[in-house]
Amino acid sequence: MARALALAEQAIGLSDPNPRVGCVIVDGRGQVLGQGHTQAAGQAHAEVMALRDAQARGHDVRGATVYVTLEPCAHHGRTPPCCDALTAAGAGRVVVALGDPNPLVAGQGLARLRAAGIAADVLPVEHPLAVDARELNIGFLSRMQRGRPFVRMKIAASLDGRTALSNGVSQWITGPDARRDGHAWRRRAGAVLTGIGTAREDDPRMDVREVETLLQPRRVLIDSRLEISPEAKLLVPPGRLLVYHALPEPGERGRVLADRGAELVSVAEPRGKVDLAAAIRDLGQRGVNELHIEAGYKLNGSLLRSGVVDELLIYLAPMLIGEGRGMVDLGALTALTQAPRYRIVDSRPLGGDLRLRLRPEVPA
Question: Does 142 fall in a domain?
Fold first, then answer.
């Protein structure tokens, strides 16, 4: 199963919106007969890739044990059901790291395997490899179970919590290793979101450049009044920019942006701002599993106050800036009990910087 999980990781930046799945087929002596991982959406799933690999090696898989990181699918979408492929191949046993919460599967894959006389087992939920399988597909699970992406907010800051000088200069607070790691997290995401303040001041591209990827995440902008410049780098390919705004009609500014390839969606709240929770739900409906946020302190604060952020990804540089821009704007708290509290998921040095991953003590 550990090998299957390593294969599943190769589907990062490739398989979205489908889950990242790996599969290894072994004989009674533990010899690998075939292996594979999920390909791009509409192409072969991990089980089929492993069966093809076994066939290419000249191996007979009848009676073999199949290790797969997610329950084999039981529905006919863009590809046939994987449980049927395993049954037709004569697999003797299937071991699954994680059940699939997709309503089109949800135990049906296991049931069909067992009905065909194939032993089908699921790892205990507390098993370390089951935990790893959940983490690898945490966004897919979130979309299936909650109807929205897993939301990760990335912040790069100094030791005193400053993300930029008072004049807005922020390049670069962290070093190249931390920036490369940040791009690896972008690569995991189905979409990368920023706000109009960052778009105006930094003119970012918000694509993946520092690591290799076959699939670029969708770029998303929160821009209540459609103030983005038609010449902004966010409008430059690859892909179309998705802009959430709060105007009843986009008007001439909207037509100009649409001509530049932007897709405009109005999701307004009564105060005339973008309804952030509605925007994130819409991203889930569009198949976004993981949403990566790189925004300024004002939008960061709004997102945190709306309760949609599942994880903080913070890079701390060993410097002190003093007066400057903070990480988030939460408004004035009157008691420490009002402060959001987090638990550290992991910490890791990256070059001269420190990366922290944190999740709310009370999940979003």
Answer: no
Q: Are strands 218-222 and 241-245 parallel, antiparallel or unpaired?
A: parallel
Q: Which of 9, 47, 71, 311 is catalytic?
A: 47
Active site residue 126: no
Q: Are 205 and 236 in contact (CB under 8 A)?
A: yes
| pLDDT tens digits, one per residue of 248-277 | 999 999 999 999 999 999 999 999 999 999
Cis peptide bond N-terminal to 17, omega within 30: yes
Do 243 and 325 have their domain in common? yes
* Residue 294 labelled as part of a binding site: yes
Count of C-beta atoms within a 10 Å radius of residue 26: 19
For residue 165, the tally of other CB atoms under 10 A from its CB is 15
Domain that residue 86 falls in: 1-135
Q: What is the arrangement of strands in the sheet containing 290-293, beginning at the earlier edge strand?
A: 263-266, 241-245, 218-222, 191-195, 290-293, 150-158, 311-317, 353-360, 342-350
Among 102, 135, 168, identify where a domain stops. Answer: 135
75 is known to lie in a ligand binding site: no
Phi, psi of 243, rounded to the nearest 5 degrees: -115, 120
Whether residues 179 and 289 share a domain: the answer is yes
* CATH number assigned to the domain comprising residue 62: 3.40.140.10
Instruction: Name the residue among 247, 257, 187 with its Cα closest to residue 218.
Output: 187
Q: At what angle do helices 138-146 and 128-136 cross, to 10 degrees?
A: 70
pTM summary value: 0.92
304 has binding-site annotation: no
- What pLDDT was estimated at residue 76? 67
273 annotated as ligand-binding:
no
Three-state SS across 22-49?
EEEEECCCCCEEEEEECCCCCCCCHHHH
User: Is 299 annotated as contributing to ligand binding?
Assistant: yes
- pLDDT at position 364: 74
